[in-house]
Design goal:
Blueprint (H helix, E strand, L loop, with lengths): L6 H18 L3 E4 L10 E5 L2 E10 L3 E3 L10 H11 L5 E6 L10 E5 L1 H10 L8 E3 L1 E3 L10 E3 L8 H9 L2
Parallel strand pairs: 3-5
Antiparallel strand pairs: 1-2, 2-3, 4-7, 5-6, 8-9
């Protein structure tokens, strides 16, 4: 997307792309709409299995997940508080619109909360962070100078990843 849009529009677009991609893969989808939704945005169904999906959209290269838990605790403590709040079987689909033109698909990643927590704790040379970065190279003024944090390759949205997710619910 060439220009920044509101976080509400990012959220709506992200949910629509995720629902469409699961449907393209042959899954049945149920979408929740409205304020104060529970932990998940979509339900994805395959045979007799249900997958609760929480969609997080971004247009800046990262997903701020634990800022609201950071007060008075370390980065790892904030990540642990975030993790406690989520059902371990809910899958997150991370949608990235940064540097995506209007005629391109956003990048999508699938991960369980524990997988996300592990990656966030290892970021910034193990210090942790409140933001899960798609890819971040830490600059000269950062405590993690020289490190690169990146979403694991295996999280990329694919039929194989979806099948792996369904086996683990």
């Amino acid at each position: 997307m060439s220009k920044q849009i509101s976080s509400r529009h990012v959220g709506v677009a992200a949910e629509a792309f995720v629902a469409a991609q699961f449907a393209r893969c042959g899954y049945d989808i149920s979408v929740q709409y409205g304020a104060n939704q529970p932990e998940y945005d979509l339900v994805v169904v395959k045979n007799d299995k249900l997958l609760k999906v929480s969609v997080k959209g971004s247009q800046d290269g990262g997903w701020g997940l634990t800022q609201s838990f950071k007060k008075g605790v370390s980065y790892h403590g904030a990540i642990d508080k975030w993790l406690e709040k989520h059902n371990p079987k809910t899958v997150f689909v991370l949608v990235q619109f940064e540097k995506i033109s209007l005629n391109e698909m956003p990048r999508l990643y699938l991960a369980f909360p524990e997988e996300i927590a592990d990656v966030m704790k290892s970021s910034a040379k193990g210090r942790g962070d409140t933001i899960l970065y798609e890819e971040k190279v830490w600059g000269k003024t950062a405590q993690a100078y020289g490190a690169t944090d990146k979403i694991p390759e295996k999280w990329k949205f694919s039929s194989k990843r979806i099948e792996e997710i369904f086996k683990n619910i």
